[in-house]
């Protein structure tokens, strides 16, 4: 399959953060950002006339911390938070979330391998350090949501999150695509988690490109092997805009469906 093409001037670029721009870490606060990445994102933002947004499960304030001094357009908490260029963060309400916290805190106290993460309008239970507790975590989230209104559970990589119902990364991307400077461009979205599938579906519907970071069944149209390969693609694209491409840095790209078929042989 041909290599993932470099980013073009008419691209609307959407990027997940954890597992995509940055390698996953045992705990969210331990994530490290490659030093060159911030400069590359800044150059791409300029070359794309501002049509670059981060679309993440993290709150926008955390994204700003990791990518400082950049303040990029962003969708945080899977789209519950939205910020366009130069604007304040708009936040969807999460009524009824607070009463769910005490039983989840009690669960985490009973199982030290679990971690409770409070977000602006969501809460997540991470079980990366105790993967054997996945069933227990899912059951606990189902139980606390039994009588909740306007909230829903969403599983991800070693995490289950409770967030406002009816929001996802696909809707966030669609909202950006209706605004300048994103409107009228070809969307490209890169992500790694099952929570990114809604985004892949939207960009495919709009005739764009979904880039899966990793290998699994997906709605994405191409894949790269991991965050390092995705960053390599971003660096090469930025250098190409500047007229200094580095052809030896071409990332490994594949057809996710073909890879899955090959794995089943």
UniProtKB/TrEMBL annotation:
Annotated keywords: Hydrolase, Magnesium, Metal-binding
SUPFAM superfamilies in alphabetical order: HAD-like
Segments for region (Disordered): 241-265
Catalyzed reaction equations: alpha,alpha-trehalose 6-phosphate + H2O = alpha,alpha-trehalose + phosphate
Enzyme's top EC category: hydrolase
EC number, UniProt record: 3.1.3.12
MF term (GO), any: trehalose-phosphatase activity
InterPro entries registered for this protein in UniProt: HAD-like_sf, HAD-SF_hydro_IIB, HAD_sf, OTSB-like, Trehalose_PPase
Biased composition (Basic and acidic residues): 247-265
Pfam families on file: Trehalose_PPase
Cofactors demanded by this protein: Mg(2+)
Pathway: Glycan biosynthesis; trehalose biosynthesis
PANTHER family documented for this protein: TREHALOSE 6-PHOSPHATE PHOSPHATASE (PTHR43768)
Family: Belongs to the trehalose phosphatase family.
Function of the molecule: Removes the phosphate from trehalose 6-phosphate to produce free trehalose.
UniProt-recorded name of the protein: Trehalose 6-phosphate phosphatase
Organism, scientific name: Cupriavidus numazuensis
Lineage: Bacteria, Pseudomonadati, Pseudomonadota, Betaproteobacteria, Burkholderiales
Gene symbol of the encoding locus: otsB
């Amino acid at each position: 399959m041909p290599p993932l093409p470099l980013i073009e001037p008419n691209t609307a670029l959407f990027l997940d953060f954890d597992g995509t721009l940055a390698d996953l870490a045992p705990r969210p606060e331990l994530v490290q950002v490659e030093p060159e990445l911030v400069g590359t994102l800044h150059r791409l933002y300029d070359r794309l006339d501002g049509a670059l947004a981060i679309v993440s499960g993290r709150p926008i304030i955390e994204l700003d911390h990791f990518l400082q001094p950049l303040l990029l357009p962003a969708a945080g908490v899977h789209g519950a938070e939205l910020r366009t260029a130069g604007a304040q963060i708009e936040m969807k309400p999460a009524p009824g979330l607070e009463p769910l916290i005490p039983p989840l805190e009690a669960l985490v106290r009973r199982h030290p391998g679990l971690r409770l993460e409070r977000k602006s309008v969501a809460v997540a239970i991470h079980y990366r350090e105790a993967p054997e507790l996945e069933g227990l975590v899912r059951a606990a989230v189902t139980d606390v949501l039994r009588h909740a209104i306007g909230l829903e559970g969403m599983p991800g990589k070693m995490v289950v999150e409770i967030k406002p119902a009816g929001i996802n990364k696909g809707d966030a991307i669609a909202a950006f695509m209706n605004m300048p400077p994103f409107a009228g461009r070809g969307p490209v979205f890169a992500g790694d988690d099952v929570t990114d599938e809604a985004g892949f579906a939207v960009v495919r519907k709009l005739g764009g490109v979904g880039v899966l970071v990793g290998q699994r069944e997906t709605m994405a149209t191409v894949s790269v092997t991991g965050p390092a390969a995705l960053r390599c693609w971003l660096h090469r694209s930025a250098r190409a805009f500047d007229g200094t491409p580095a052809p030896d840095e071409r990332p490994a790209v594949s057809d996710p469906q073909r890879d899955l078929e090959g794995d089943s042989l």
